[in-house]
């Protein structure tokens, strides 16, 4: 699972959802039982995993030949609780989490080419 960018993306998507759950549970401990340390610890963990998810999404954007729309959906899915797993399942069903066999131009290289043509 960890040998491909697809595996790393799936791992961080699931980890991001688990860290959301941990943060929500920590909020119950803070506001329900008076333990603010729970949110301090889980907030830090969730922030770290959230950042990893965003970075991995940006990294796999090129190799997986995602369109810019799919990248935006992946990034937006990092905000609501558990949406990263919903996006990951959607991307699996749609075939977006598959390494392409053809190595044609990426949307990023097409954008760079268009900008160079304007210059």
Automatic annotation (TrEMBL):
Predominant location category: membrane
Domain of life: Bacteria
Keyword flag Cell membrane: yes
Entry GO CC: plasma membrane
DUF3817 domain: residues covered: 7-92
Membrane spanning residue stretches: 6-29, 41-60, 66-87
Keywords in alphabetical order: Cell membrane, Membrane, Transmembrane, Transmembrane helix
InterPro entries reported in the protein's UniProt record: DUF3817_TM (IPR023845)
Cellular compartment(s): Cell membrane
Keyword Transmembrane helix found: yes
Membrane topology (UniProt): Multi-pass membrane protein
Pfam family name, one: DUF3817
Protein name: Integral membrane protein
Organism whose genome encodes this protein: Actinopolyspora biskrensis
């Amino acid at each position: 699972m960890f040998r491909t960018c697809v595996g790393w993306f799936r791992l961080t998507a699931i980890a991001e959802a688990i860290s959301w759950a941990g943060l929500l549970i920590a909020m119950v401990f803070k506001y329900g039982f008076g333990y603010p340390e729970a949110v301090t610890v889980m907030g830090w963990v969730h922030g770290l995993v959230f950042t990893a998810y965003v970075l991995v999404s940006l990294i796999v954007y090129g190799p997986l030949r995602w369109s810019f729309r799919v990248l935006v959906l992946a990034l937006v899915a990092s905000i609501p609780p558990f949406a990263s797993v919903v996006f990951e399942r959607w991307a699996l069903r749609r075939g977006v989490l598959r390494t392409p066999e053809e190595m044609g131009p990426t949307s990023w290289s097409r954008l760079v080419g268009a900008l160079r043509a304007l210059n």
